[in-house]
Amino acid sequence: MDRPLPCLPLLLAILLPLTALAAPATEQRERALNFDTYHAAVLQSAGHPNELHRWHGVWAYDNGRYDEAIVQFRRAARYADKYSQHFLSMMYWYGEGAAPDRVEAYLWADLAAERGDNADLLEIREKIWASLSAEQQLQVAERGEDYATRYGDKAALPRINSHIRHFARSQTGSRVGAQTARLDIGLGRPDIWAGGGGSAVSTQAMKGVQTGEFYGAHRTRPDAYWKDQGLLLRTLTGQVEVGDVDKVEGKTPAPSEAD
Q: Which superkingdom is the protein from (predicted)?
């Protein structure tokens, strides 16, 4: 087994750290997320589909539904979500929700590290690259352009930033400076809810929420949002063993395109 590499844990958008995605699913681990925390995170994700799909992915993963987690993380990855791209890299490395695939693991690791501002993600990417055979490195070159076109920042950032700007325009409240109000947040019908069923809830109320925080610059201005996300990403580290890949039996292959 190779030496451990730093890895990012499953992360709550509201700054609550969770268990690291640091071991194959075959190892015994404690649940990282309860329904109340998941529900609160979904509410907090309003206007940010990258976070919404990331949370659905975390919930599915934590309930052992790894194929569903891959679908949700792929959807979040379309919105420049580096957390989800990293999670996909680790899931394909370990064969959780799909057969182990070092080339696929590298492609997602490369996307997760593309901004070049996170030493941990860069180290993981280079570690995976060093493990590839010459043939696998050629496969990376053949498949990489398509992944960059669909999931790279050049395409994904405009996609998510339009949602963030729309969210900013949805802000309503007092013109005399009141910062505390009842917020009714539309949820629609999330794809995954408790137990995997659909939710009939269309809105949820959050009483006593500081609207200045909920609609702060770090949530409503793309430049401030991505700066905040990048800082958060760099503050949390865990450990993951990037060594030999063993096939995990009984997993459902993920779809090639989950959009």
A: Bacteria
34: domain range? 4-153+226-241
Domain membership flag for residue 133: yes
Residue 175 lies in a domain: no
Residue 216 belongs to some domain of the structure: no
Domains of the chain: total: 1
CATH code: domain of residue 118 = 1.25.40.10
Tell me the per-residue pLDDT of 47-69, one tens digit each, with 9 for 90 and over: 899 999 999 999 999 999 999 99
Contact 21/240 with Cβ under 8 angstroms?
Answer: yes
Q: In a 10 Å sphere around its CB, with 0-12 CB exposed, 13-18 middle and 19+ buried, how is residue 162 labelled?
A: exposed
Q: Is the pTM of this model over 0.85?
A: no
Helix axes 35-44, 49-62, angle to 10 degrees: 170
